[in-house]
Amino acid sequence: MNLLLRLLLNAVAVFILANVLNGVAVDNYVTAIIVALVLAILNLLVKPILILLTLPVTILTLGLFLFVINGLIILLADKFIDGFAVSSIWTAILFSVLLAILQWILHSLLGTKKKS
Q1: What's the pTM?
Q2: d(CA 116, CA 109)
Q3: Which end of the chain lies in a sparser environment, N or C, as judged by fewer CB atoms within 10 Å?
Q4: Where are the transmembrane segments (predicted)?
Q5: Residue 72 CA to chain centroid, in angstroms?
Q6: Phi-psi region of 63 (alpha: psi -120 to 50; beta: other; left: phi over 0)
Q7: What is the pLDDT of residues 33-69, one digit of tens each?
Q8: 76, 65, 77, 71: which is closest to 92 by C-alpha?
Q9: Which residues contact 8 (CB under 8 A, 6 or more apart)?
């Protein structure tokens, strides 16, 4: 149940940011739920591989390259989902940063925490 609530909160965050940012578009709320689900799957499966492959660059940039990896994950989700569009890598990086902040705010307001 907690996982479903977290997924819905992430979809709300995606939908809000798509309406706020100029370079991001989401067709409807169902597409936002699909985006949240695909982002969760990509963060679970693809992101660790990308982090491992780009470890030297990440160390050299003191971790700032992780923003680029997050932007690439957003762009990859854009390629998989028809009703979701991101205009550029810079918009994707900004979207990922704002998404993390908005998710943190929403989860702290509603008190949903990850079980460790």
Answers
A1: 0.89
A2: 19
A3: C
A4: 28-46, 53-77, 89-110
A5: 10
A6: left
A7: 999 999 999 999 999 999 999 999 999 999 999 999 9
A8: 71
A9: 33, 36
